[in-house]
Amino acid sequence: MSATRFSEEHRDALQEVANIAMGEAGASLAQLLGAFVRLSVPRIQISGAVSLPDALGSLIGSGQRVTAVRQSFLSRVQGEAIVLFGEAGCAEVADLMGYENTLAAGERREMLLDVANMLVGACLGGIFRQFDMDPGFSAPSLLAENTPTERLLSAESLDWSQALTVEVHFGLESSAFSCHLILFLPERSIDAIREALDRLIAQL
Amino acid sequence: MPIPVLIVDDSAMARKMLERALPAGWDISITHAANGHEALAAYRAGKAAVMFLDLTMPDMDGYEVLETLRREHLDCFVVVVSADIQPLAQERVKKLGAIGFVRKPVTAEKLEPLLKEYGVEIR
After folding, report:
1. For residue B5, what pLDDT is reported?
2. pLDDT at residue A200 in the model
3. Which one of A36, A114, A115, B18 has the fewest beta carbons within 10 angstroms of its own beta carbon?
């Protein structure tokens, strides 16, 4: 029901809202890593929950191994933010951040949780500021380590019949580092997002 | 003669926001383009004495548009309008010939000083 009322105009507007927010997140990441960050065009889609693992696979490419960090947020809109780090680039992040030795597993987790927390804070902060909302965040937690993307989310792990997803990608020019930030908004949040977008569109 | 102004952004909302931020008394004719290919086609059709250019776009991005304009010695005032606020992004587009960089979301207040600097006459 919600999906059919989410028009092309809403999708276009949400893409631009996400684009503005990811610019700030990208700049923070660039500062942290001392490298130029390439931003993607945000991708917006509505999926049935059954197909969320498939949706992830099609966004990221199935079969890729990733470490995933999950953080939930709550405002008038609630949902989950998931940051996926490609395994290949994780070691390089440590180098860029100035760690001299190979990281112990615990240190590596902590570093990725910090990076994810920064990206989620900047991206969601940027999106919700444009909506005049002020979300609260849970602490980031590790969802999976070195796991193929298609095994990340089983249908039962998210109890939603439908979700709006917003995906952005951050890459570096001279490094294998790559990470995706995906927002999952459950059906009951889609209406609130749509209303916020309607208010933005009405100002034009 | 109105000045041909081209607004290049993959988002229709972003193009509308930019249009709204342009000075009301500026005698212009506005064309929209949704990616780099459309932008260059519009330029070649004489529709871009001034171009407001987004960087992150599918198919052909803003950097590629700037590179093409430069390579072909094309004459156009390009103002980059982007959410990418890395200092290096600004440096790069200026090296590629952009006259200005405006951070999204674009507003009249952000555009006005730049347009004045380039002698845009607003009635």
Report:
1. 98
2. 94
3. A114
The three-state secondary structure class of B107 is: coil
According to DSSP, the residues that pair with B31 across neighbouring strands are: B6
Angle, CA of B105, A82 and A196, to the nearest 5°: 40
pLDDT in tens, A119-167: 999 999 999 999 999 889 999 999 889 888 777 776 456 667 788 999 9
| 8 A C-beta contact, residue A157 and residue A71 | no
The domain spans of chain B are 3-117
Question: Taking chain A, what is the end-to-end CA distance rounded to the nearest angstrom?
Answer: 27
The answer, yes or no, to whether residue A92 has pLDDT greater than 60, is yes
Pairwise CA distance, residues B3 & B44, whole Å:
15
CATH number for the B3-117 domain, one of 1.10.12.10, 3.40.50.2300, 1.10.645.10, 3.90.79.10? 3.40.50.2300
| Inter-chain residue contact A16 with B11, CB threshold 8 Å | yes
Residue in B closest to A200 by C-alpha: B13
In this prediction the pTM is: 0.92
What's the CA gap between A85 and A120, in Å, rounded?
13
Report the residue of A10, A11, A15, A16 to disrupt the B interface, i.e. the one with the largest count of B CBs within 10 Å.
Answer: A16
* Residue, of A178 and B42, whose pLDDT is higher: B42
A146, two tokens: 């070195």
Task: Report chain B residues touching chain A, CB-CB < 8 A.
Answer: 10-14, 16-17, 20, 56-58, 82-86, 88-89, 103-105
